[in-house]
Amino acid sequence: MTSVVHGLTAADSQEVSVTSDGPSGGAGFEDFVMEVTVPEGAAALRVEVWQDEWAPSENLDLDLFLINPEYTAVVAQSAAGGSDEAITLVAPAPGVYHLAIDNWNAPAGDVATGPVHVYTPVADEGNLDVTPSPTSVVSGVPVELTATWSGLEAATRYLGAIGYDFGAGEAGYTLVTVTP
After folding, report:
1. I need a labelling partner for 5 at 20 to 30 A (CA). Which of 18, 85, 108, 150 fits?
2. Residue 57, by phi and psi: left (phi above 0), alpha (psi -120 to 50) or beta?
3. Which residue, among 46, 144, 139, has the nearest Cα to 87 in the 3D structure?
4. Which of 80, 102, 75 has the alpha carbon at shortest distance from 90?
5. What is the pLDDT of residue 11?
């Protein structure tokens, strides 16, 4: 088995403003919509928001909805209480998705502003190493791998994926999140 590294990739972050259409979700969940591009070969897609990075942050309740490229269906959502929300897809189909954000609990017209972080690790960035690789494996017998990273900027979030290739392409992934 050969371990295939994707990333570690820092977030592509965009500052956005989300205007509520009313409390308890209002009329719909699309208070703000942005495009999210998944490139060919992406091992994962993660979109996330962190409440402490938003203003106002007190009593904020943002919910995330990822809509397919055709804009016909929600493919994933994160709608827990509070605003630490994340959606992660492994081996997503490439295309332009749509991220809808609902400023769920705010009165109509209230605005929350903060960053949306998007990660799409594709290629080996040279900052993540997995050993041993290649390694011999036997079905049903655990194998221990070690992941190490270097050269990352402090206080920056990174996402990577380790793919497992048994000779016919990658058969699965382990996601790696690092915040040095």
Report:
1. 85
2. alpha
3. 46
4. 75
5. 95
Q: How far apart are CA 37 and CA 2, in angstroms?
A: 28
What pLDDT, on a 0 to 100 scale, did the predictor assign at position 67? 98
Question: Considering Cα of 171, then 167, then 177, then 36, what sign does the dihedral take?
Answer: negative
Nearest Cα to Cα of residue 49 among 132, 112, 137, 121: 112
Task: From residue 127, give the alpha-carbon distance in Å to each of 5, 7, 36, 109, 147.
Answer: 9, 7, 24, 44, 10
Q: Is the pTM of this model over 0.85?
A: yes
Interval 21-56: pLDDT, tens: 998 888 889 999 999 999 999 999 999 999 999 999
3-state SS of 139-174?
A: CCCCCCCEEEECCCCCCCCEEEEEEEECCCCEEEEE
Distance CA 19, CA 63 (A): 13
Number of alpha carbons in the 13 Å side-chain half-sphere of residue 91: 9
Q: What is the pLDDT of residue 26?
A: 86
